[in-house]
């Protein structure tokens, strides 16, 4: 009887996609994108910002994870209530205006998605440079072949994509957990996690400010959790599996990051950590692996980094085109993007165009500058998505909400204020990039108005 009810629910959620992704597949997509090479070096930036206080650094990692989790819970409520491909674009469209949702998708289509794919595709062969002699041309050729290969692979259906993501997720965790376990077992140091000295030196307000600055650094390691919602229509039971995957994925990664950094403190003496970071040697995790496993440790870290980056690239190639598909279905983008392959049920045109833009970005210089352009509006759109939770509860009370955000409305208010704080902080820290970043949505407005005018003309002639 329960199975029959479940089938009826899914049949009522009409979709052209194949529902092939389960809870573990969802966790693999989140973890595959979130856990990258940053686990080995981002802890250094968090430590710098806490004045090398271990206690504050660990707290920053935990709070960064909690903030990401509550952001994820907002996405979970919206995704379970509106299980459609496109993720935040769908929620912004329903809560505010179709133009707002379109601009989020357009920013991702033009630079955000392809820029991330291009940057990671370049990072993978760069990680291999210590083992393979590659010049800049060789790195770019490698990156282009990787993009083409994964795009072709993803054209053969979400089930194959999900299998590859599951394999890469497990494969990347093996070396990371080996290093983590080895450090916890072999480490002889008892790290000082007290925060009293910082409180005494900087006062309560100064310490909170320092901690907030460190949390911003930790949040970059948690980036990627928003991508699961773009494949909601391909999740077997989105009303149950989407929230579960977000909670397990983000919660598990929070524990992993906090434990991994604690393990580093167990192995490396405090003076060594400070000296390494001040000399701009940020790869504390690599140093720990070498101390525990000798020369094999360096190879272990490289293997973990390569597999982690590979999983991130595949996850983005899989997830991002679903947003472009949703833009087309909404009616303000090229119709070809809204067509699925008749057999494999994937947005083939969106996948191919994303690959072409990614390859163009690989061939261009100043890739970092290009990808930085979308940072400002990405945080702005996340802020708007969190606010969409109370807006849609009032605007669409009749929708079945099988999952609701914990500790509402306090959790939503705090999460929204944090994202707004990040937007304001970014604007003042780097006003040029923030203002320049508006060029992309400005171009998007032109596209939206063009398609809007075209749609109205077609309606009049119909």
TrEMBL record:
InterPro entries: AA/rel_permease1, AminoAcid_Transporter. It holds the Pfam family AA_permease_2. PANTHER family: AMINO ACID TRANSPORTER, SOBREMESA, ISOFORM B. The lineage of its organism: Bacteria, Bacillati, Bacillota, Clostridia, Peptostreptococcales. This is Amino acid permease. GO terms for molecular function: L-amino acid transmembrane transporter activity. One of its GO terms (cellular component) is membrane. The keyword Thylakoid does not apply. The keyword Phosphoprotein does not apply. The chain crosses the membrane at residues 21-42, 54-78, 99-127, 139-158, 170-190, 202-222, 242-265, 292-319, 344-364, 370-393, 405-428, 434-451. Signal peptide: none annotated. It is found in: Membrane. It comes from Intestinibacter bartlettii CAG:1329. It is a multi-pass membrane protein.
């Amino acid at each position: 009887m329960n199975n029959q009810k479940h089938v009826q629910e899914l049949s009522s959620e009409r979709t052209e996609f194949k529902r092939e992704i389960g809870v573990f597949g969802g966790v693999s997509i989140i973890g595959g994108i979130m856990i990258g090479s940053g686990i080995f070096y981002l802890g250094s930036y968090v430590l710098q910002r806490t004045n090398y206080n271990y206690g504050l650094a660990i707290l920053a990692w935990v709070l960064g994870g909690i903030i990401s989790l509550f952001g994820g819970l907002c996405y979970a409520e919206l995704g379970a209530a509106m299980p459609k491909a496109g993720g935040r674009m769908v929620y912004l469209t329903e809560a505010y205006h179709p133009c707002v949702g379109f601009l989020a998708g357009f920013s991702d289509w033009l630079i955000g998605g392809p820029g991330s794919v291009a940057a990671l595709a370049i990072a993978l062969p760069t990680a291999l440079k210590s083992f393979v002699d590659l010049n800049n041309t060789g790195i770019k050729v490698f990156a282009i072949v990787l993009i083409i290969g994964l795009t072709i692979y993803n054209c053969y259906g979400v089930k194959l994509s999900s299998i590859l993501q599951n394999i890469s997720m497990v494969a990347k965790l093996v070396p990371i957990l080996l290093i983590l376990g080895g450090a916890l077992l072999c480490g002889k140091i008892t790290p000082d996690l007290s925060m009293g000295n910082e409180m005494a030196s900087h006062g309560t307000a100064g310490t909170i400010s320092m901690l907030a600055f460190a949390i911003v650094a930790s949040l970059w390691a948690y980036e990627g959790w928003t991508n699961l919602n773009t494949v909601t229509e391909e999740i077997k039971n989105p009303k149950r599996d989407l929230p579960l995957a977000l909670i397990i994925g983000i919660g598990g990664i929070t524990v992993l990051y906090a434990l991994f950094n604690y393990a580093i403190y167990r192995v490396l003496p405090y003076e060594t950590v400070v000296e390494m970071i001040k000399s701009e040697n940020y790869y504390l995790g690599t140093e720990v692996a070498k101390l525990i496993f000798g020369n094999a440790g360096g190879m272990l870290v490289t293997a973990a980094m390569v597999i982690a980056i590979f999983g991130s690239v595949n996850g983005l190639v899989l997830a991002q085109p679903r947003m472009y598909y949703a833009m087309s279905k909404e009616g303000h983008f090229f119709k070809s993007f809204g067509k699925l392959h008749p057999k494999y049920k994937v947005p083939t045109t969106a996948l191919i165009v994303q690959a072409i833009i990614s390859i163009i970005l690989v061939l261009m210089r100043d890739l970092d500058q290009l990808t930085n352009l979308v940072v400002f509006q990405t945080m702005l759109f996340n802020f708007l998505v969190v606010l969409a939770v109370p807006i849609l509860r009032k605007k669409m009370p009749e929708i079945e909400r099988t999952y609701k955000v914990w500790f509402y409305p306090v959790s939503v208010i705090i999460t929204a204020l944090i994202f707004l704080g990040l937007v304001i902080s970014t604007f003042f820290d780097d006003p040029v990039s923030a203002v320049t970043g508006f060029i992309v949505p400005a171009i998007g407005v032109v596209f939206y108005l063009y398609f809007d005018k075209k749609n109205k003309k077609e309606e009049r002639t119909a």
